[in-house]
Structure prediction request, 373 residues.
Amino acid sequence: MLQSTEPRKVRVPGRQSSLSLEDITAQAEGLPDFDGHEQIWLGRDDSRGLTAIVAIHDTSLGPALGGTRVWPHESFEAGLTDALRLSRGMTYKSAIAGLDLGGGKAVIIADSKTQKTPELLEAYSEMLRALDGQFYTGEDVGLTLEDADFLRARTPNVTGTTSGGSGNPSPVTAHGVFLGIKAALAHRRGKDRLAGIRVAIQGLGSVGWSLAKKLRKEGAFITVSDIDPARAQKAVDRLGAQSLMGDAILEADVDILAPCALGGILSRETIPLLKASIIAGAANNQLATDRDDNLLGERGILYAPDYVINAGGLMNVAAELAPGGYDADATMKRVERIPEVLTAIFRRAEAEGRTTEEVAEAIAKERLGRGRS
Ligand code: NAD
Prediction:
């Protein structure tokens, strides 16, 4: 458990709340993913449709930074768990990426297609303002660059905006994942040539599509799935990809599986079905539970820890906060070090007989112990 500098706090900056602070505190502390979070904020405004959770995990390296996810979780607890897991991941991601930032993440429980109204975003911008610089946020699943611009016009501490910001982080994330896939290939097979290598990509959103194009360009054979059939069809038409429905992608007969949709897909149920010998993709929190990396290890599957391989987007938005402002070249140089970090993790895991996830966490904690760079 990480040390927290402050006791847990829960506040409700929204106009109305039907959930008591004590209830939320008790609920958060009782969840397996709580892990000593410094703060958890609830923003609730029923009249404008907002239920938002901001989880701040650890700020020992700097202010918390993490995207805002808009997702129709089936329960408040599911949304809270998502926020807790994602924010802890951001702590480790920043630490291992060598950034002086802490870990946080926001979840707005809503359907981004039907419930993400200007009123809801307006209410959320008020919540962000109330956080007063403790939390920097930006786009994530369900929150677009336009939404980030909308929020930025109303409150500071929104990164990755189109005007004056670093813009869309997804191509940078995809580049880091692409380089990470090559590092995994080199580690496993001795060379990083992608020609003829079969890669399955789950999720063809901003990152998945960009990654698919890069892989195809280097001669990889692509298999895809997306719950949006039009996205999968586009990959079939333009990249000659094979398209699979639903979870069949996890069982695809491929060399590499690149999860680029949502988390929790590597579980006790799915791991025995995998045919890929490498898992390397952008999705956050790919392991359903902290113990599932052992199952991957037992099956001899090389796993690139998600928060290491997908750190490119964070590096891109974090560059906005650097003293000299955003520098695209410097950011790319940082992203190009992702393969080096991954290779060190793969080697250390083998040398110490531990999983790559355990080693990544150990490296992140070592950095947290050393403090700011
Ligand atoms: P996105 O919303 O643009 O794309 C997600 C895609 O996955 C969509 O096309 C969606 O239809 C599809 N999808 C959802 N559930 C699916 C399922 N069960 N099976 C198949 N497809 C499914 O998101 P994105 O920005 O491309 O991010 C993808 C993942 O990478 C997310 O987990 C995100 O948190 C993570 N990530 C993204 C960035 C970034 O820079 N965008 C950075 C780090 C991590």
